[in-house]
Amino acid sequence: MPKTIVRIGLVMTHSLGFYRDILRGVKAFAIERPDWVFTPIAPEARAIELARPLSCDGYLAHVFTRPLANALLKLRKPVISVAGVLPDLALPRVAVDHVEVGRQAARHMLERGVSQFGFVGYPKHDFSVKREAGFREIVESAGLTLQAFHERTSRVQEPTGVWRWNQPLMDWLTALPKPVGVLASNDVQASQLSECCRQLKLLVPDQVAIVGVDDDDLLCELSRPSLSSVALPGERIGYEASKLLDKWLGGSPPAKTTLVLPPGGVVVRQSSDLLAVPDPEVSAAVRFIQRHAHQEMRVENVLRHVPIARRALERRFRKSLNRSISEEIRRVHLNRSKQLLVDTELPIATVARMSGFHDGRQLSILFRQATGITPSEYRHQFRCRP
């Protein structure tokens, strides 16, 4: 007797890295379900109607328009959304903590001494609104201000589609005080913002530091200079969405409307790799600390590189960065440990040694003091892959 087939409709485009990561997560889960058969369907209402005769048992969908949502709801089949555009739809979804995306970008820029900020996004898309809110929260809590530019369009469009060139954006960018750090709501906007800077002969990152969102490998490396970006847990989204759909198909509808996953942190490339500190000794000291983030380090090591009295350098550190030399060393070491915890399977003791700590115990103590959780808990919480 032939084995039962479960047909899964994959309603999403393959155009960007985020979507492809989601599909990789779906594939990872499907290893456990060899009876699943995938049916790719374009994310359009008409395509859903045309695919109706295929009788899919359930759908994993990037739902970014109401007509698409309505077409899927009419099927009366289990649908899990993986979009961050229309949060009020009557569909369970797996989403990113978009507010935390904005917070991470703001902290990244503040750590580099940026004191003037801008945001480019959409006024109606939920993911953009929340990313701006998180970005603004951290900026304003530091006593600074943020200027925003919103793409103005009368219709809801695919949120990561081609962004139209427009003179208002160029005027806004020209009028921003410089140097400035700008968060774009996604990598498409960030890469095109970078091209705007080239047209206006604005230096990136010296005059305009840019951070995008999605960590799309092609867009980030295609940008000139390469684009820093907040990484999203696309593979985990795909895996968790598949898990929810599988339970639903087994007779257990999702208990929660939305499952929210944390972002993976800023992947630093050239577009924000600056130190916006006018003090040359402080700048030289910080760059030395960053270059040696993999080594144990004391303040004395820094002072040998920057020939200035310790008291004077400490005072200038406080004035420029509002932290001491020791605090900067610890911050850089902890950031490196976080990156290794998320990106590798290295044992905690190895992560500690490769992050400038004496051993795993020292890392665990300082890590918990800084974050409130252990390195192992951090790895479990923020790891993008399932």
Describe this structure in words.
Helix 5 links the parallel strand 6 (117-121) and strand 7. The chain contains 16 helices and 12 strands. The strands form 3 sheets. It has a 6-stranded mixed β-sheet, with helices on both faces. It has 3 domains: 6-95 and 234-261, 3-Layer(aba) Sandwich (Rossmann fold); 98-232 and 266-272, 3-Layer(aba) Sandwich (Rossmann fold); 280-382, Homeodomain-like (Arc Repressor Mutant, subunit A). It is α/β, with parallel strands linked by helices and 386 residues long. Helices cover 46% and strands 14% of the residues. Helix 4 runs parallel beside helix 5 (126-141). The radius of gyration is 23 Å and the shape is globular.
Q: What does the secondary structure layout of this molecule look like, with pairings?
A:
Elements: E1 6-11, H1 17-30, E2 36-41, H2 45-50, E3 58-61, H3 66-74, E4 79-81, E5 93-96, H4 98-111, E6 117-121, H5 126-141, E7 146-150, H6 167-175, E8 180-184, H7 187-199, E9 208-214, H8 217-222, E10 228-231, H9 234-249, E11 258-261, E12 266-267, H10 280-291, H11 299-305, H12 310-321, H13 325-343, H14 348-353, H15 360-371, H16 375-382
Parallel strand pairs: 1-2, 1-3, 3-4, 5-11, 6-7, 6-8, 8-9, 9-10
Antiparallel strand pairs: 10-12
